[in-house]
Amino acid sequence: MDRILAVLLPTMVMVSPVSANTGLENINQQQLNQLADTLDVKYRLLSNMPEQCPGSNAEFCYHAQIEITSPFTANVDGWKILYSQVYPATQSRSKQLTLSHFNGDLNHIAPSSDFTGFKAGKSQVIEFWVASSLLNEGELMPNYILTAQGLAPKVIKSTQSYIEPDTGLEIKPYAAVSAKSSVMQSHPDDHYAKYTSAALFDKYDIEGYTLDSVQHAIVPTPEAMEVFKRDTPLSLSKGIKLHLTGLEYGDIAAALQRLDSLGVKQTHNGIAVNITVSGKPQGHAGAYQLSTRKGKIQINAQDSAGAFYGLQSVASLLSLDTMQVAAVKVEDKPRYDYRGLHLDVARNFRSKEFVLRLLSKMSAYKLNKLHFHLADDEGWRIEIPDLPELTALSSHRCVDLDDKHCLQPQLGSAINTGRDGYYSVADYQEILNFAKQHHIEIIPSLDMPGHSRAAVKAMEKRFYTLTKEGEHDAARQYLVSDPQDATEYRSIQHYNDNTLNVCMESTYAFVDKVITEVAAQHKKAGSPLNIYHIGADETAGAWVESPACKRFIADKSNDVHDVEELTGYFIERVAAMIAEKGIEVAGWNDGLSETRQDKMPHKVASYVWATLPQNAHKVVSAHARRGWDIILATPDVTYLDFPYELDPKESGYKWGARRTNSQTIFEFMPDNLPANAEVKKDTIGRHYVADDRTQVDKHGKFTHQPLPEGFRVAGIQGHLWSEVIRKDHLAEYMLFPRLLALAEKAWHRAKWEVPYNYAGEKYDHTTSFLTAQMREQREQQWQDFIHAVGHKELEKFDRLGVFYRIPNVVSKVINGRLHASTIIPGLPIQYRLNDGKWQEYLEPLQLTSGTVVKLRALSPDRRRPGRIEVADLTGKARL
């Protein structure tokens, strides 16, 4: 339940018991309830390219307004509306309302001294400018909260989102973001305004493709496959019968469970499945050989993981309509040892059941690492029994702005509808055990020293509680903030209190305690903590006025001379602490860049999240030359919380990429980052240059060198950050089906990819290292991959209840007829004329003047439709 807002921080304006506005009365509980139930709130985008960006020097800004309308007259004062907005306004304007930023993404609207009350049917409007662009509804958070001092707060009904029954998608009735190019274009040079439906139709055209390869397709693509078209396919309709050599049943039980769920049972008279594990150390971990010829299935593997993956390939070969697998011989091994997914459960919580389902789906496509982001500013999600405040306070949010009982409301989280919670010790044990059965390693992450507000507030609660009880030493034992710190700063997510104080010994006692407890939970589950991700990113201006840090820097024995060196010092010290426990250190590249190589452990994993146009290749090279392992986390390819397409109804952040679909991921060349400049574009669709040649400054010092000879990255991972994802099934929507393309890049090295030039090279859209022949090979393999997804894998998703994204229908008028398609082939398409009945699209439609045509795709089982698109009958293709 939401708590009564009783105490506000000093930065909030206190409301007087008597209204300052003449003729108005202070709002009472009944009036507050009535207004919350009846106010109509609209968040309306006015322009993404206003003439000016007041209060900011940003290149981008948008102009918007919030309109509040009451159906009845209410001459009341003393209220506030709390709401979440990703980026604070740089300036606002209103006759009767004020807009202020509070903390994080929390803002508030309040009556000004000129407020004359709500008049029936007359809108109160506040307009504002934000240093960003607003291109889809994903950033517009729900659940505006009407509050007043001493009264129970209540969510304004018109700002609540709901799930549309047919599509299962989130609808935001308060959001008014138009699809018109006048508002969807964010910059005069924004090339994405050219991505019309007709242009995408041309891009996704699949004329002349035959379905021959679908029957023997495996996702992800094996290293080598021989197809025996003359051999009779194996029918698994009567089940399978196992014969195991060199492995235990439990090693492959999870893969057998997947086959069982797809209708392939273990029976006495089933097709023989012979699995042999050699156990020899030579070769590649996870490698296997598979044969489905001569009336049996034979899998030979070096280890149990390889045997597991061989069975997953059998499941991928399976066609559900015939229950057959094609006759093939496969030689296969993974491209990278690290094939991962980052899951953020801190911002918005994901249920244990979701995590278990996700692990099962990851293993089906041979992903083997779950980077588990368990704590951030907005929540702490793992139980540490000796520090109960971490979950008692910081695992949930409510309307308590001083964080005494919970964390402040953030990300539109006023009502706890599955967005908050934590994993108990028993829950985490179950997750670890389940992951082990699926040959997946859990890599926990509790972000530090920035992104740590949940930890800061929990330990402050512990400090005040124990101090009140007279236990002063215990109170300070794990304190991670300096009570005397007067530093004013704002993090990248606009918090002013989210950073651990790295100058206090109690902070390191806290870090050590947490890591020790997490490692113990892993050990108990029989899954040793081999690698721990400390975060180590985005600390912004903290500690400057901290007395503890001033004393620390003044102490010459600390080898820290300036506040700017403190982040690096913290990472070095925590890294040493982790390494002493026999655990590999991992972190984001920006924080790791601030460390001194000689102060870091020998074994370090750097997760590089710079974008391709922002010279990700230079970061990779710099860290590779430190001898570190590199995990690619390039946002413009791997962030699966970005929108699939350029559609204002799609959800997702867009700071790193405006569109990230299966094809944009499939076309990525991870072993040669600079070469992607030939085909990739920046966030507004412009070409860019990637110069990987040796570069020196005027003093002769290297500013960039190509990768060391023979160096290859250790792996790649997808990312699902959860700021705008409020439901488990919507998290699946953001992940699937494009996670399959990520798995493809992690497992399979395509022959069409441009080899890396260790001597250095310069790439842009005019160079042709990706030759015409290689592009033709890429297109053919893309069609093979996406047809396998559309004709086989989505049917399996339907069978297993996966809520994947059904693509939008694209269309184009050709010779007076409307042609329709989707990026994923094989899906049923329906059309509706002038809001009539839905009909099957079987051939191009003959158009008549004035007709409005609506289109939608269906899931293969026809039980779920995708988003409705209104066909553009102009037929213009501008891509």
Structure description:
The protein is an alpha/beta fold. The protein folds into 4 domains: 25-184, Immunoglobulin-like (Sandwich), CATH 2.60.40.290; 224-332, Chitobiase/beta-hexosaminidase domain 2-like (Chitobiase, domain 2, 2-Layer Sandwich), CATH 3.30.379; 338-769, TIM Barrel (Alpha-Beta Barrel); 771-879, Immunoglobulin-like. The chain is built from 20 helices and 42 strands. The strands form 11 sheets. The protein has an 8-stranded parallel beta barrel, surrounded by 6 helices. Helix 4 runs parallel beside helix 5 (304-317) and helix 6 runs parallel beside helix 8 (425-437). The chain is globular and about 90 Å long.
Summarize the structure.
With 879 residues, the chain is an alpha/beta fold. 24% of the residues lie in helices and 21% in strands.
